[in-house]
Specification:
Structural class: mainly alpha
Number of strands: 4
Order of helices and strands: HHHHEHEEEHHHHHHHHHHHHHHH
Number of helices: 20
Shape: globular
Strand content: 5-15%
Largest sheet: 4 strands, mixed
């Protein structure tokens, strides 16, 4: 690797690194990775062949400007691997980077994106995709783990969702570093989020776009004027959140001589994302405790609605409850009877984002145990209704991919 790689490492998001270490040390992640490695030893996964048949390779001759941008990003991020660029026909604005194959890296764009993005917006997208490669984000096969035959434990599922959000933050920084133009970066994220690409319909304003986030962040008011609630908790952080995180990055010493230091930047980002991290499971505040008690009773009620609490459910729950916790000594019926009271307490003391968090985590846990049954769904809906959270949050999480974009 070139000495340049230093820069890429220095801008990477700390929490991406931290959670990735945790995931790479997890036995079930290691097993799935070993399975995938075995599959790819039998021969390449054929990505290049599929790309060549389903899309058009952009040679240097055909598309000098796109290659020039890619060269700039490769140089900036210190990547030393031959790159192949592809375009496929689609009006949607989209891009993707695949795990290298045959010592080549593939980046793919939709035709809609190539036609609608100007040079700096495009630079952000290319840098973002290459960021996933530089940071080896493809080493953790999120999709496989969440959708595989062996369902991940509930705690692992929550960690995967948290990690994929921070992985996007790192890739965004790589893109922003390459583009070096916050307005263009915000415009690109706006276009990706809204699908609106023609200036005839909409003129983009960074201040208004960020205002949308401030409206979402006025906690005690209902979020949802600015963005649908379910976007708060998706793996692809809602783009105003990403822009806000990038605004902090642009004000940091990584981009400015006199900017804030990295520790301060990471605290700011953590604060933004902290709207969505499962720390109440460890927290000691009164609110954290009421949330935790509701989570425990809710998780047990959901597991019970499936087909009673078996050994498997006990193992899942134990992971959250820690060692001082015995399910056997527990009267399950009694605990489920406390559910309405616990919902009431959380509704009274927790902010709307905190309430959404409990609903999200219960949904992730339910999903981790396999296909959701109607009975489980009714329990989840009951909890959401009691907390004044829209049911769409649940359906959104049950159907969501945590794959990196």
């Amino acid at each position: 690797m070139g000495g340049h790689h230093m820069i890429a490492d220095s801008i990477r998001c700390d929490n991406d690194v931290k959670i990735e270490q945790y995931l790479l040390n997890d036995a079930s992640v290691q097993k799935i990775k070993a399975d995938i490695d075995r599959m790819s030893e039998k021969g390449p996964l054929g990505i290049r062949r599929r790309l060549l048949s389903g899309s058009v390779r952009l040679s240097r001759g055909m598309s000098p400007p796109v290659h020039k941008m890619a060269d700039h990003c490769i140089e900036t991020l210190g990547i030393e691997i031959p790159l192949e660029l592809y375009v496929y026909a689609s009006p949607q604005v989209n891009a993707a980077c695949f795990k290298p194959e045959e010592a080549r890296l593939f980046v793919m764009f939709s035709s809609g994106l190539l036609e609608a993005f100007d040079e700096n917006e495009m630079m952000f997208v290319v840098g973002h995709e290459l960021g996933h490669h530089v940071y080896k984000h493809h080493e953790i096969p999120v999709g496989y783990i969440l959708k595989g035959r062996q369902r991940p434990s509930a705690n692992l599922a929550l960690q995967l969702f948290a990690w994929s959000r921070y992985a996007e933050i790192s890739a965004d920084r790589a893109g922003a570093y390459c583009a070096n133009d916050l307005n263009a970066v915000a415009r690109a994220l706006f276009k990706l989020a809204s699908g609106l690409t023609s200036n005839k319909v909409v003129s983009f304003s960074l201040t208004e776009f960020l205002q949308q986030l401030d409206e979402m962040q006025a906690f005690d008011e209902e979020p949802g004027q600015g963005a649908p609630m379910e976007d708060w908790f998706s793996t692809h952080p809602f783009s105003p959140l990403r822009v806000k995180a990038l605004q902090l990055f642009h004000q940091s010493g990584l981009m400015l001589d006199e900017g804030m230091d990295k520790a301060e930047l990471e605290m700011g980002v953590q604060g933004l994302m902290g709207l969505m991290e499962p720390d109440y499971l460890q927290g000691h505040t009164d609110v954290a405790k009421t949330m935790r008690l509701l989570f425990i009773a809710g998780a047990i009620a959901v597991a019970n609605a499936r087909d009673g609490i078996g050994e498997k459910e006990k193992a899942v729950l134990k992971e959250f409850m820690g060692d001082g916790f015995s399910l056997d000594a527990l009267n399950i019926e009694k605990l489920i009877d406390t559910l309405p009271k616990r919902i009431e307490l959380v509704k009274k003391h927790a902010s709307i984002t905190q309430r959404m968090q409990v609903v999200r985590d219960l949904s992730v846990v339910a999903r981790a145990e396999g296909e959701i049954t109607d009975n489980e769904l009714l329990v989840l809906y009951g909890i959401a209704d009691g907390l004044g959270i829209p049911r769409t949050l649940i359906t959104h999480i049950l159907s969501e991919d945590a794959d990196l974009d």
